[in-house]
């Protein structure tokens, strides 16, 4: 066992010489004990700390269309912030590993707060299958894998994207809401009856996608409890 650990250590050292692990925010080479981002970027991250608040801006943004139990986001999403790169790489640059790592690190960070207590199933915000085929993965699913690794809460695939919606980036809040209304469905409502689910996505901007998911879940399963976790949240 000891020999195996030694060999694994040498192997990791060798890999890090050939492919140095770098901070995904600033590009500096990572040292032992650092994961994904360096100590400096970790300490400077614009954390929201929403997980310790009973009512926070994420709740507020979803309040109009959804009654949400707990809601949290790791850091503030500002267009000029270097931390946005984490989200963009995980989404558009073929780096599902970043999404997984972020899910794991964030869930570990807030685990002791009790945020995950009583949650039965993690539901990643689904992506239409054609889009997922093109991208090769759904970043929300990868985040869910990271969270599930920490919390041991199973991941469900009960929430489905019914058809593709066009890109959200250039739309106003109301247009976005209309664009995603009725786009999600529940495959097997009985499985979620009386359950507490954690809806997971990479970033919350207007909240229209998550609101639409909440609407679909509540329509299909009236007694469902819903909590929300995203890696980043746009602040206004
Ligand atoms: Zn850094």
Summarize the structure.
The chain is α/β, with parallel strands linked by helices. It is 42% helix and 15% strand.
Description:
The protein is of the alpha/beta class. The protein folds into two domains: 1-44, no CATH class; 46-234, Rossmann fold, CATH 3.40.50. It is 42% helix and 15% strand. It is built from ten helices and six strands; from the N terminus they run αααβααβααβαβαβαβ. The protein has helices spanning 2-18, 39-44, 57-62, 84-92, 96-110, 129-135, 139-151, 173-180, 189-192, 208-220, and strands spanning 71-77, 121-124, 159-161, 184-186, 196-204, 225-234. The strands form two sheets. Strands 1-6-5-2 form a four-stranded parallel beta sheet, sandwiched between helices. A two-stranded antiparallel sheet has the order 3-4. α10 (208-220) links the parallel β5 (196-204) and β6 (225-234). α4 packs across α5 (96-110), α5 packs parallel to α7 and α8 (173-180) runs parallel beside α10. The longest helix has 17 residues, at 2-18. The radius of gyration is 18 Å and the shape is globular. The mean pLDDT is 87. The structure holds zinc ion. The site of zinc ion (ZN) has 8 residues, from α2.
